């Protein structure tokens, strides 16, 4: 039988009680973590979101009825206890914040009984994901998840606090939007008032925030829900949270500056990490050349080396063939891994193939200075020496080479570098290496579409000094775009936007738009630009991802209260579900059975 | 031709420049509000979100080229000006914050030219709503709308600031939810991965926030987007914003207390209004009896009086008939309106009929003490005198009476009271009268469903002292529910929730649920309640409505950046719209043509 709260007032959360309160009477409420009967005493670990407090029931203090009640307590019962705080009679429990005290119960109410939960409420649960997510309301009781969500709440508040101080306005943009044909797949919402017509859930507030700049709001931000009906991948959520901003009357330095200060502030206040600013800025080309990635993890070296010049004209056809195709040969040096067994190397080769490599050439330098290599026989001693020197190879090192189109070589070696670092435990989770990747290519050639595509979006500003080459060498034009990278993860990105008619028109031309097709897709934005548009730029962060990094979560589901699983369903509510025929009739929709 | 921002840095927003800066060089950027040529000088009113600043172009200062450029400026051009601040040469403009200064331009860049906008950018626009909303990006430039949205941004930040200090966690709940059969109509989102199945957009995070209490988060809040596909009404938006909270281990007083302090804080900080707390609490019955409304506007009197006892047995069949049907006769006294012309009274009668009245009885007290009345002839002099006395009628007053079922009488007189107050200009917009309406009926009889329905929702806690009557007199049971009312508007509402199995089970029984049907609808919440649920309570505010009150907006559209119109469409983006056949195929949906 559940008792009522009538007349009861909680005085403290569990771990708000401390040795300062010894001798005081407190009222605490929470869940029974566990009960132990010890001689004539009953001990309860009482849990709330703040942590654990020990409560002791002694019949002399709590009375006969109270003591009997305490005897019925089981895990997850919700109780309220009033009692005196005292020094803990037994040894101090160093693992608990309240380990030096306990509360001697004088009154107890059972606010709610509880059935035995399907899995224990404890940190680092070994319970299967499916069960945890079905009973998410119990899973959410686990202290580690609670810590994650409490930190998340703090982080988004810190963001807002900083942004408000910097003169940003939080402005809500619609969730019921217009569907646009380009980009990822939209979630659609059928209209009842306009049957046969649909809203789309926003993939980002991009167009709205640019409109707000046209409207003179000057500095906008929003913690915005975004939606993408993308193909399934383990750690992707159909809805995700973006910290979105846009600024008027700025150039790239202004945006980077305010964001560096934002990051410094929230990482310090949320998790006590000192971010040194200004952050490093690395042009995209350098990031690819050195790390094979536009989101380099700079916590360790093992950088890529372009050895195309060195192997040019060597006898190894795989190398020279790649060069002839306009590609490159590059390598990394896995220091001290020269004695890696063949089996493990084979695994790396397989790994590389997963990233598009046709193979992986390796060379290990034995302690006696001789080489063991998959391709040594095709090359002269001098050629091998030059190759080893190019990678600063020393006795005991393992050199790995990929030869292919640049894109594949970068991709393969970038991934390999990370894989080896993981295996060798080179990734310190407590080191936070931020950097900006800048000067992205404006355009990307698409074989599929047989045309250049915008790497970011069609409103991204080209770099002034490159723009004159847009006709002769479109691929060489760099953009005023930037990504913020943390430990190999892209936390966010953005760009300066085009605000000049002539550049925008040319950009659409390069992207193969006609005047009509540009207008069809971006009509209201282009219209807005006609009436006086300020120079503007913006950036958006993936909030889920940022919080994941802060709490070292393995899964995005550990930082979202009610996540969906791989097939975009919710195991707890069983959404999506069937709806009434009447609802579909109102929408004038019919389900087509396959 | 648009010039670039290269090397330019804004030093101030327009009205951040003040007489303190006289002699200093500043760089300001914004939109040209207007240009005047005056002799050898050109004057520009430069506008940004902060306000207006006067810029003067003198060829001696800005040079020939700059002066010529200034001569080409037209409304809504975006420019950057660098120049010296000086005391205004002409008379001070008292209407402007910067009315005592001006900037003598030394450099100008035209950042963007502008076509002539379809309507002038000015406060209190007389432009048709349809045009304003089509060009919403221009409408949003109007200083009054900008002030609204800036205040809105501030209000939601103040809310968050307060809530964080009070130990609330902001936790995001899903937008892609499960459709539930009861309540208002859901917006549906077809699932591509599970064809034939649908998500629903949330009407509120109600179930999620109760689950979070089960999960031990103790204090939750969220500024949440909610959605209802309701029938069309002028000032209703398909998506709206709710400030939503839930608290564990509390009773009604705790919830009211924290919310009173919240309201006091935000009204003071946002608009400088002192809210005296604790607020008045008025039981629902009293609100209906005195004001004919569960959201009484207490800025003026003209209260309802129940005269059923007085007219019992009188000769006026309309009165006695209503009493015989179990109804009542009530009146209001429109002080000093005794000389209201018959035509105007007839209008009030028509107005009353619009609220369900069959008619409206009136009696005006002439200055000589005689009566003019629609029903005097049916009553004795003594009866009339008693009636007048019951309403404290004096010479020059107009008494209006309704006789019907209570619900209709309240409805009619409540509306009439407001209507007359509006006409007499009794509603001071700068007076903020808050009150709690409490002790709502738990259940409401539905003729349509032929059963009792939950007035709030099925989880609302009954008042302990009434609960024993639930079988004998269900209608008399009051709930631990509360609404916060401001000047006749319901700003928000909530309730203490049932956390006891036995009460919840009984409640479902009273509402006509079977065990199965209750489980079908609320399964996961009921499951969650099995594993230990804390006493909890919550409240939600309508943010749009609250901000409307703060800025005295006439329309909800004036406090939402991108609102929809009555048919739930967006005139700017033309959402909702058609989508590709391919998209529908992927969803296995077909549109049924009518």
Automatic annotation (TrEMBL), chains A, B:
Gene3D superfamilies associated with the record: Bira Bifunctional Protein, Domain 2, GAD-like domain, Nucleic acid-binding proteins
Every Aminoacyl-transfer RNA synthetases class-II family profile domain range: 149-563
GO biological process, one term: aspartyl-tRNA aminoacylation
GO cellular component, one term: cytoplasm
InterPro entries: Aa-tRNA-synt_II, aa-tRNA-synth_II, aa-tRNA-synth_II/BPL/LPL, Asp-tRNA-ligase_1, Asp-tRNA-ligase_1_N, Asp/Asn-tRNA-synth_IIb, AspRS_core, GAD-like_sf
Localization, UniProt: Cytoplasm
Binding site for L-aspartate: 182, 228, 456, 497
EC number: 6.1.1.12
UniProt region (Aspartate), positions on chain: 206-209
Principal location class: cytoplasm
Binding site for ATP: 228-230, 237, 490, 542-545
Protein name (Swiss-Prot/TrEMBL): Aspartate--tRNA ligase
Higher taxonomy: Bacteria, Bacillati, Bacillota, Clostridia, Lachnospirales
Gene it is expressed from: aspS
């Amino acid at each position: 039988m559940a008792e009522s709260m009538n007349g009861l007032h909680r005085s403290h959360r569990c771990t708000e009680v401390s040795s300062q309160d010894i001798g005081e009477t407190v009222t605490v409420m929470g869940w029974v973590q566990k009960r132990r009967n010890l001689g004539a005493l009953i001990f309860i670990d009482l849990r709330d979101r703040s942590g654990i407090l020990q409560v002791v029931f002694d019949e002399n203090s709590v009375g006969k009825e109270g003591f009997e009640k305490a005897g019925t307590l089981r895990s997850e019962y919700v109780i309220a206890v009033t009692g005196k705080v005292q020094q803990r009679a037994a040894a101090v429990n160093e693992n608990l914040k309240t380990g030096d005290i306990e509360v001697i119960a004088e009154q107890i109410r059972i606010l709610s009984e509880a059935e035995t939960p399907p899995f224990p409420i404890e940190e680092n649960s070994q319970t299967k994901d499916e069960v945890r997510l079905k009973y998410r309301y119990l899973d959410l009781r686990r202290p580690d998840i609670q810590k994650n969500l409490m930190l998340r709440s703090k982080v988004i508040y810190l963001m807002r606090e900083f942004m408000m101080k910097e003169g940003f306005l939080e402005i809500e943009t619609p969730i019921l939007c217009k569907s646009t044909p380009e980009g990822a797949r939209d979630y659609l919402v059928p209209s009842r008032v306009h049957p046969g017509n649909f809203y789309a859930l926003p993939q980002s507030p991009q167009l709205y925030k640019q409109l707000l700049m046209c409207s003179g709001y000057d500095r906008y931000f929003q913690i915005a829900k975004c939606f993408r009906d993308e193909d399934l991948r383990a750690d992707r959520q159909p809805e995700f949270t973006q910290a979105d901003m846009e600024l008027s009357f700025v150039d790239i330095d202004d945006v980077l500056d305010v964001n560096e200060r934002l990051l410094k502030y929230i990482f310090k206040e949320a998790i006590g990490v000192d971010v040194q600013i200004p952050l490093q800025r690395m042009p995209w080309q350098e990031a690819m050349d050195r790390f094979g990635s536009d989101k380099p993890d700079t916590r360790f070296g093992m950088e890529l080396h372009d050895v195309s010049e060195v192997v040019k004209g060597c006898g190894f056809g795989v190398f020279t063939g790649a060069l002839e195709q306009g590609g490159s040969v590059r390598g990394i040096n896995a220091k001290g891994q020269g004695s890696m067994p063949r089996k493990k190397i084979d695994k790396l080769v397989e790994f590389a193939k997963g990233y598009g490599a046709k193979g992986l050439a390796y060379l290990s330098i034995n302690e006696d200075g001789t080489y063991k290599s998959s391709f040594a026989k095709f090359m002269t001693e001098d050629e091998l020496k030059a190759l080893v020197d190019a990678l600063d190879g020393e006795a005991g090192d393992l050199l790995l080479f990929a030869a292919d189109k640049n894109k594949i070589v970068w991709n393969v070696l970038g991934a390999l570098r990370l894989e080896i670092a993981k295996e060798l435990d080179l990734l310190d989770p407590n080191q936070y290496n931020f950097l900006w990747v800048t000067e992205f290519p404006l355009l990307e050639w698409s074989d599929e579409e047989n045309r250049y595509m915008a790497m970011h979006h069609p409103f991204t500003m080209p770099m002034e000094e490159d723009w004159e080459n847009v006709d002769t060498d479109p691929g060489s034009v760099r953009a005023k775009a930037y990504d913020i990278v943390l430990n190999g993860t892209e936390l966010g990105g953005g760009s300066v936007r085009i605000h000049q008619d002539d550049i925008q028109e040319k950009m659409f031309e390069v992207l193969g738009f006609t005047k009509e097709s540009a207008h069809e897709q971006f009509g209201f934005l282009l219209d807005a630009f006609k009436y006086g548009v300020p120079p503007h730029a913006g950036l958006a962060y993936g909030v889920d991802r940022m919080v994941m990094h802060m709490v070292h979560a393995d899964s995005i589901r550990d930082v979202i209260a009610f996540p969906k699983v791989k097939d975009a369903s919710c195991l707890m509510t069983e959404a999506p579900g069937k709806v009434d025929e009447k609802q579909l009739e109102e929408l004038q929709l019919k389900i087509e059975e396959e």
